[in-house]
Amino acid sequence: MSYLETTHNVYKEAALSPDVGLCCTTNPIWELPGLKIPRIMQEMNYGCGSTVHARDLTNNPKMLYVGVGGGMELLQFAYFNRQKNGVIGVDVVDEMLEASRKNFIEAEAQNPWFKSDFVDLKKGDALNLPVEDNSIDVAAQNCLFNIFKADDLKQAIAEMYRVLKPHGKLVMSDPTCEQEMNDTLRNDERLRALCLSGSLPISEYVKALTDAGFGTIEIRARKPYRILDSKHYPTDKLIFIESIEVAAIKDPMPSDGPCIFTGKAAIYYGERDYFDDKKGHVLLKNQPLAICDKTAGALASLNRDDIFISESTYHYDGGGCC
Ligand SMILES: C[S@@+](CC[C@H](N)C(=O)[O-])C[C@H]1O[C@@H](n2cnc3c(N)ncnc32)[C@H](O)[C@@H]1O
Description:
Helix content: 25-40%
Radius of gyration: 21 Å
Protein name: Arsenosugar biosynthesis arsenite methyltransferase ArsM
Number of strands: 13
GO molecular function: methyltransferase activity
InterPro entries: Methyltransf_11 (IPR013216), SAM-dependent_MTases_sf (IPR029063)
Bound molecules: S-adenosylmethionine
Keywords: Methyltransferase, Transferase
Pfam families: Methyltransf_11 (PF08241)
Oligomer: single chain
Strand order of the largest sheet: 3-2-1-4-5-7-6-8
Order of helices and strands: HHEHEHEEHEHHHEEEEEEEHE
Distance between the termini: 46 Å
């Protein structure tokens, strides 16, 4: 059996009997006026963060969500769009599509504004999306891509890139891990399917996105996720897994490389009212400007004693340079 078949079976089981501890998120369940998340959707929350960010969702974007789970995030996306077929949901597991279909009927009963046909559920594979080229404004996946091995990850990201319109956004949440994992862990198909042993360091995860052509990357959140310890897992050292929320934007690739925002800011504190690097970055005195890592490097290389550059907070929420 391939690891993709094992994954299929794990999520068939998780569709037939909800498994509350399957994935863990420290995110509180979204509360918005008039939005009720049915209990069954909460029990089937198999994500590791949130891909729903209000600022991505203005002007009725056409949305795609790959790996539907119990449907909670599709309901949250539909909240912002409220149009027939406004959100396409794709999943390869029939039982998961069926479970989410049932959950949307429950959501309809609890949310007067919601209709099941706001979500267009399609059977399909993240590696071969049943979606037209350049047709989507906001695409999302939560806790699926970390399962994929390198070639499949490349293919899944290329598929998202293909279906997004120019400047469209791919919004994701996935576990990441900065420590090395041994081959026994890496090759354990069930642990991989459970989002425990496929994760990459953040830099490799980001590189997979920029290699696909995404010109702008935003790391929006970084949180503790899980521990793999030697009593319960085949490892002789304690492994700390985090989860990140990332947006990859289909902007053209800048000639000097991608803009990767990791939550750095620059503050000019010199004698003048502002500092202008003549490359499009104007730092007003004593006001932080969010900068990408490339600009942070360029400003640091000036070796000035009146510009402070903060460390990455891994919490970027918009604005700034580039
Ligand atoms: C970890 S769950 C995440 C579910 C949902 N995104 C959430 O946050 O609750 C992974 C989801 O991806 C689906 N899936 C697994 N392999 C897939 C594939 N190759 N293509 C599309 N969906 C897949 C599973 O059925 C399941 O719904």
